[in-house]
Amino acid sequence: MIRFEYVTKIYMRGARPALEDVDVTLERGDFAFLVGASGSGKSTFLKLVLREERPTSGHIHVAGRDLGRLASWRVPTLRREIGAVFQDFRLLPNKTVYENVAFALQVIGKGKRQIENTVPETLDLVGLGGKEKRMPHELSGGEQQRVAIARAFVNHPPILLCDEPTGNLDPATSVGIMRLLDRINRTGTTVLMATHDENIVDQMRKRVIELRDGRVVRDQVQGVYGLETV
Amino acid sequence: MIRFEYVTKIYMRGARPALEDVDVTLERGDFAFLVGASGSGKSTFLKLVLREERPTSGHIHVAGRDLGRLASWRVPTLRREIGAVFQDFRLLPNKTVYENVAFALQVIGKGKRQIENTVPETLDLVGLGGKEKRMPHELSGGEQQRVAIARAFVNHPPILLCDEPTGNLDPATSVGIMRLLDRINRTGTTVLMATHDENIVDQMRKRVIELRDGRVVRDQVQGVYGLETV
Amino acid sequence: MRLTFIASEVWQGLRRNISMALAVVIVTFVSLGFLGSAALLQMQVANLKSNWLSKVEVSVFLCPEASNRANCASGPVTTAQQDAIQQVLTTGAVGDLVKQPIYYESKEEAYDYLVAHDKDGYFSQSLTADDMQPVLRVKLKDPEQFQVVADATQNLEGVDVVVDQRDIFKTLFLVLNRATLIAAVLAAVMLLAAVMLITTTIRLSALSRRRETTIMRMVGSSKTMIQLPFMLEGAIAATLGAVLSIVGLWLTVHYLVEDWLASQFKTVDYISASDVLSVAPLMVLIAVGLSAIASLVTLGKYTSA
Amino acid sequence: MRLTFIASEVWQGLRRNISMALAVVIVTFVSLGFLGSAALLQMQVANLKSNWLSKVEVSVFLCPEASNRANCASGPVTTAQQDAIQQVLTTGAVGDLVKQPIYYESKEEAYDYLVAHDKDGYFSQSLTADDMQPVLRVKLKDPEQFQVVADATQNLEGVDVVVDQRDIFKTLFLVLNRATLIAAVLAAVMLLAAVMLITTTIRLSALSRRRETTIMRMVGSSKTMIQLPFMLEGAIAATLGAVLSIVGLWLTVHYLVEDWLASQFKTVDYISASDVLSVAPLMVLIAVGLSAIASLVTLGKYTSA
Ligand SMILES: Nc1ncnc2c1ncn2[C@@H]1O[C@H](COP(=O)(O)OP(=O)(O)OP(=O)(O)O)[C@@H](O)[C@H]1O
Ligand SMILES: Nc1ncnc2c1ncn2[C@@H]1O[C@H](COP(=O)(O)OP(=O)(O)OP(=O)(O)O)[C@@H](O)[C@H]1O
Ligand SMILES: [Mg+2]
Ligand SMILES: [Mg+2]
User: Fold this and answer.
1) Euclidean distance between the first and final Cα of chain C, in Å?
2) What is the pLDDT of residues B80-133, one digit of tens each?
3) Contacting residues for D24 by C-beta, under 8 A, at least 6 apart
4) Does C227 lie in the same domain as C194?
5) D242 or B225, which is more confident?
6) Which of A174, B144, C65, D154: disulfide with A166, CB 3.0–4.6 Å?
7) Mutation to probe ligand 1, out of A43, A47, A216 (largest number of atoms < 8 A from CB)
């Protein structure tokens, strides 16, 4: 589903690489954590998958596409295969929950009928059934993040990327979000989540890819957060 | 140093109060954690101290001032008594480390001489001696947060407010930041820190004020994060 | 679905930056107003030129009965002299320049004309036909060639003086041409301002909706879908400005030129309100073109994938 | 320290929004250009009025030797008639309106004037002094009172016709007044655009430096310190526009009016480049005022404590 072949990313000439010789494969239906200290390259990894950035060297394959050969006008079709969730929820403050989720379908030109079917279904999935008409500021942080996940998932993309989705949430709320991501993963969606929340990583016991200074220093099935530090 | 007397804050008429009947006192030199779920009112508490928001009812005294009676043109003098640190570091990306810290003194009209004395001293204190000329993007997240703390503390305010200062940092880096805050607290500065990082709260064993739905449900000397949840 | 969605985005964008959008409308209004004025002034100049220059004639005044001029020292013009002058004007290089036939105005005709046009009768009561001069009225195929005709006839026997009315129009044309130039320069300056304004409006709009565009990029919205609303905003504001300036010019020409000027100075052919309509499409085109350029310059940077 | 700091903030702000700042410069340039033009046109009209109206005279043409006019059926004016006319013009209500003394131009003087000004000699060679009319040239204290003088003298014995040159200026004044009006309206519209633009520039600048202002508020910077750079940016751009339009007007007046127009039509008093300098301070004041208003309207919202 996602394959990095010896990928190196250098943002500025002469600077230390943000990613160096990264060689990682995620299969369809995988659930993996991307951990590492601040600046270790987690966000850079996700940006390369989304083709927001392009690698300095190496090859990246996502959802059967070679990103190096993907014409830039084809990038939108790539992004429709990927849902993305961020630490700041990035909801539109003047749109209701329903409209926020529907927005993601409207802007890729989906029909009215399809939107009316899919959106309530997805809101039910993330546990927001009945709160369609709330505005974002009327929701708790956890609920806002659920809206963001619903928006990322409403198009049923095969890949879901999460960049520290629980960074702004308290521990109890975070656990709820992780349960939701786990449920989405069980529908066959590949989930890749960058985080430095050790409790969550330790609890979930999923695959852990650890970056340090842009290099993969650990790739462990059913890992915990701080193995090497401890 | 900070005294809340039955303070209630309601953002919008009819909405649930963000803070309700909060009655808390912090003495000079205190170190307290403000914990609670997302939306429990931690940031609102800090905004009231900074007089970014005004209480719906109740009285607030900060650094010997009654905020209810403080004329709005006197607010700057209040803010010079308070340093503030946020989750996103809020550095100026086109200024060096030195310039970022000096900026805080320039804009309150301090003289060149004083700036040249104080800034390097403060940078040494936060452990950034020798990195004065780096740009923010050349620093790790932990180092950026140190710059933000240096900027908040360069004027030696008697109060330091921190709103989730370790929210974007990995556990190891977070510990470093906490050590720094502890050191600052030992110089006699009152430190109030909102957070939902349980590990840190548990490790520090300082005073813990827990909010739930805007009410203080716990105020404990040498507390831990999740007492009531566990 | 898509259309209503884009329309609502455009509407929101315009409302959010209303003062900016109004500034664009006003500035395109004024700049295209100048441009249109310059075009219309040039049309008016062309009108006047074709109008007056075709009427312009070279008048060869022949010697009258009694004259103390040096040219006419030998007395009034004789038939032989007159034939010789006619000969020069009808044959050879000069003949080719001149529209045939040449009109001969006798002194009696000149006197009749004077009597008819001198309402107060100051002159006609004290002058007789014999005080008048016979004149050859020469029309030219190319009115600019006056000098050739003048040189050829000036020194012939029996010619008093050669006069060309074209001179009196020179100043007028000069003034009109300068007005056109000033309008054109102002138009250029204002168009520059318009481009910069549209650019900034689009940029502002893009900045104030960064959150939307970021989400759109992330969920795989096409470039067109992302950029179209901004481009439309700029184009709508610019077109509105163009329409306003067309209306303004139309009103000006209709009331100021057609109604008022034309009633004051009747002898001239004026531009009409329909001339405004003939430049209108061009003005709208320029407005849309400007906003398209501004969009291209701006949007790449602010909403790129 | 503070000054250099504020200066550097202003400079950065201007550089960051360069296209916007340029738009402000251009739009204030054009709008104040119109305003200045309107003021100067009005000054020119006042000039012309005081200039020409003071020269305007009512000419009372008296009956000549031979005339077939009804008024002069009784032959040329007699001394007694002439005295009676003078009497009317020097005493009573009419006498109060008239500047004394009244200038009497005899038919010989009229003939001399004709000879001196008729270069081609068409008329002077065929007319004699007896063909000319004696004229009373009456200057008025208030040129608008022409009708009273005309009514009082029109039907007196020995008066042929009463003529007033003022009529021929009417059209000219009408045109000049309309030009002033158009310039003023355009100035108003453009000033509106200028205010909106300065508002938007300041807003854009405040938005693009939100991070700075947030930090400034947090560390306890005073309101003045926070807002001054933005206000200065607007004021500087507006002032630059004002200076440009002053320079533009000065050049226009200097080269177009003083050098060219004055050489073409010499008889008139024109506004001079120094008149531009007399409106200049007002224009700068307006520019600064506009930007101050725009600042007040905008900054409260975007940088409030
Ligand atoms: N747009 C950019 N331009 C230049 N350098 C960049 C850019 N984005 C990231 N970097 C650098 O690349 C390195 C990796 O950054 P990245 O954001 O991937 O780290 P991260 O693991 O996501 O950190 P965090 O936990 O703080 O989010 C850092 O040194 C950072 O300074
Ligand atoms: N500016 C505002 N306008 C309206 N409501 C607000 C505003 N700011 C906060 N609130 C509401 O007040 C309540 C408390 O918010 P606050 O930001 O203080 O919580 P918090 O404890 O800081 O949460 P988090 O951990 O997510 O930062 C929430 O319900 C929030 O929706
Ligand atoms: Mg990151
Ligand atoms: Mg908060």
Assistant:
1) 23
2) 999 999 988 889 988 999 999 999 999 898 888 999 999 999 999 999 988 999
3) D194, D197, D198, D201, D234, D237, D238, D241
4) yes
5) D242
6) A174
7) A43
Do residues D33 and D75 both lie within one domain?
Answer: no
CB contact under 8 A, D204 and C199: no
Verdict on whether the full-model pTM lies above 0.90:
no
**CA-to-CA distance for C175 and C169, rounded, in angstroms?**
10
**The CATH number fitting domain A1-81+160-230, selected from 1.10.287.990, 3.40.605.10, 3.20.20.150, 3.40.50.300:** 3.40.50.300
Query: In chain B, how long is the greatest CA-to-CA distance?
Result: 54
Cβ atoms < 10 Å from Cβ of C257: 18
Three-class secondary structure of residue A203 per DSSP: helix
Structure confidence at residue A158 (pLDDT): 95
Domain carrying residue D12: 2-52+170-302
Question: Sorting pLDDT into bands at 50, 70 and 90, what band is B3?
Answer: very high
- Residue A26 φ/ψ region, left for φ over 0, alpha for ψ in the -120 to 50 degree band, beta for the rest: beta
Residue that has been written with the tokens 């179209």 in this structure: C228
Q: Is the dihedral of CA C235, C237, C238, C239 positive or negative?
A: positive
For chain A, where do the domains classified as CATH 3.40.50.300 start and end?
1-81+160-230
Nearest CA-CA partner of A81 in A28, A144, A43, A128: A28
Measured by CA distance, the residue closest to atom 12 of ligand 2 is B18
Do C177 and C158 fall within a single domain? no
CATH assignment at residue D84: 3.30.70.3040
Taking an 8 Å cut-off on Cβ atoms, the answer to whether C220 and A50 are in contact is: no
Q: Are residues D11 and D147 in the same domain?
A: no
C77 and C29 both lie in a single domain: no
- Reported as a single tens digit per residue, the pLDDT across A181-202 is 999 999 999 999 999 888 889 9
* Cβ < 5 A residues, ion ligand 3: A 43
Instruction: Give the pLDDT confidence score for residue D299 in this predicted structure.
Output: 78
Scanning the structure block, which residue is given the tokens 């462990």?
A220
Name the domain count of chain C.
2
DSSP 3-state of C71: coil
SS3 of residue B1 by DSSP: coil
pLDDT, tens only, B45-91 = 999 999 999 999 999 999 999 999 999 889 999 999 999 999 888 89
Ligand 1 atom with least separation from CA of A41: 18
Pairing of strands B190-194, B159-163: parallel
Q: Are residues D96 and D16 in the same domain?
A: no
Tell me how far apart the alpha carbons of residues C115 and C127 are, in angstroms, rounded to a whole number: 10
Q: How far apart are CA B69 and CA B75, in angstroms?
A: 11
- Write D103-109 long-range contacts (CB < 8 A, 24+): D103/D136, D103/D137, D103/D139, D104/D134, D104/D135, D104/D136, D104/D137, D105/D134, D105/D135, D105/D136, D105/D137, D106/D134, D107/D64, D107/D132, D107/D133, D107/D134, D108/D132
Please check whether residue C213 is in contact with residue C303, taking contact to mean a CB–CB distance below 8 angstroms.
Answer: yes
Does the pLDDT at position D218 exceed 70? yes
What's the distance, CA A21 to chain centroid? Answer: 22
Which whole number is the average pLDDT over C246-264? 83
C217 chain-A contacts, CB cut-off 8 A: 79
Asked if pLDDT for residue D283 goes beyond 80, the answer is yes
Confidence of residue D122 (pLDDT cuts 50, 70, 90): low
Which residue blocks in D156-272 are alpha helix, DSSP H? 166-208, 210-218, 223-251, 262-264
Distance between CA atoms of residues C287 and C241, nearest Å: 8
Q: Are residues C181 and C45 in the same domain?
A: yes
HSE value, Cβ hemisphere, 13 Å, CA-based, for A175 = 6
ipTM of the complex: 0.73
Residues D197, D111, single domain; the answer is no
Contact: D219, B104; criterion CB under 8 Å? yes
CA C27 to chain centre: 23
